[in-house]
Amino acid sequence: MRFLVTGGAGFIGSAVCRHLVGVEAGQVLNVDKLTYSSDLRSLTSIENHPNYQFIQADICDREAIVSILKKWQPTIILHLAAETHVDRSITGAAPFVETNIRGTFTLLETCRDYFEGLSPALKAAFRFVHVSTDEVFGSLGPTGAFNESSPYQPNSPYSASKAAADHLVRAWFHTYGLPTLTTNCSNNYGPYQFPEKLIPLMTIQAMRRQKLPVYGTGLNVRDWLHVEDHARALLAVARNGRVGETYAIGGQSERNNLQVVEAICDQLDKRDPGPQPRRHLIQFVADRPGHDARYAIDSSKITRDLSWHALHNFESGLSNTIDWYFGSQTWWEPHLRSVQAIASQPVLEPSESGTTP
Ligand code: NAD
Ligand code: TYD
Questions:
Q1: Could you give phi then psi for residue 76, rounded to 5 degrees?
Q2: Which of 140, 97, 105, 126 is nearest to 250 (CA)?
Q3: How far is CA 340 from CA 69, 170, 337, in A?
């Protein structure tokens, strides 16, 4: 199988590339523009593998994508490239519209031309897997969960741009017969996540005994899934999913933000005790505009039809992730200057903070 992964230098894309090359023995071409949230060092373990190649390209660049498809001749497209940080979408939506909507459109159009030129056998095997988010469904009340029939009600510029992309993908299946599948996944966590997301941000801040800015009441709920479980789910969908269908993927691990941040504090206190418990660093700050109250996913379709279920449990997965950040300062430190919440804060000296990093 020849895979083309877009956004393979990002958090989830790099986990997908490592899984494909390391576990599945697939041939992988990673196509990534290398924006601020990418890091080729996340791919060090496979960068010299004969089954892995990387090309720097923008999915909005039609000519580049046409030429890549022609040369690489992929069987499966795993489309992850996107602008992904909700807070950035609120302060500047333009790149979200550009990459998530126009980029997906460009990829669909170029793949349609490529698909039309394939032999019947290759056409039968071709799949375009569009990786989306549960955020397109909006916000849940205290009960219930999103599934494949949930209505689209995006609330942030990020989720609106992903919703638009989902609709384009659906239309390219129904109108042109392009064999597409869409996945809608809940919040991911794990190693190599850009430190502007809740778990890496709070872990790094707590390690350095810096303020932990919790939005609003801290009672907003997310359903956490380990990134390796997401990578396995995407492969299951690519290999055995039904063309034209969508799959909801979740971790059955609902936690409110305060619970997550407190768990991070407590674990770091055990590893690296200091003058005061880290929970003292929690600071409630202004809420995110349009902040969705709760996400939860009913994954029964992918479990029933594709025999997928999450292998990581949230407590041990979070603990291993915190350990990874604790030991990977050289990976995350260069990213800190791009993270607004961190860039504006002075870093305490170890003697002031009583902590190692
Ligand atoms: P990320 O920001 O870590 O990675 C995105 C990657 O896409 C980066 O490497 C970036 O350089 C690349 N990229 C951006 N614009 C590009 C362009 N125009 N052309 C080519 N490459 C481009 O994001 P992530 O968390 O790994 O998310 C990957 C995908 O999964 C996204 O589509 C996102 O919507 C979806 N998703 C994420 C989560 C989550 O919790 N992180 C949950 C569900 C779905
Ligand atoms: P985030 O990691 O940005 O993911 P998403 O918005 O895609 O769910 O945020 C997860 C939750 O954590 C969300 O409810 C917002 C909250 N949050 C904070 O309270 N403080 C922060 O500094 C960040 C980045 C997020």
A1: -130, 130
A2: 140
A3: 37, 36, 7
187 lines ligand 2 (CB under 6 A): yes
Q: Among 197, 211, 217, which Cα is nearest to 287's?
A: 217
- Mapping DSSP to helix (H, G, I), strand (E, B) and coil, where does residue 132 land? strand
Pocket mutation for ligand 1, best pick of 4, 12, 130, 192 (most atoms within 8 Å of C-beta) = 12
Burial class (CB in 10 A: 0-12, 13-18, 19+), 86: buried
Report the residue among 4, 6, 11 best suited for mutation to probe ligand 1: largest number of ligand atoms under 8 A from its CB. 11
Task: Confirm if 91 and 156 have CB atoms less than 8 A apart.
Answer: no
Q: Are 293 and 140 in contact (CB under 8 A)?
A: yes
pLDDT tens by residue, the chain, 357 residues: 899 999 999 999 999 999 999 888 889 999 999 999 999 999 999 999 999 999 999 999 999 999 999 999 999 999 999 999 999 999 999 999 999 999 999 999 999 999 999 999 999 999 999 999 999 999 999 999 999 999 999 999 999 999 999 999 999 999 999 999 999 999 999 999 999 999 999 999 999 999 999 999 999 999 999 999 999 999 999 999 999 999 999 999 999 999 999 999 999 999 999 999 999 999 999 999 999 999 999 999 999 999 999 999 999 999 999 999 999 999 999 999 888 666 555 444 433 433 333
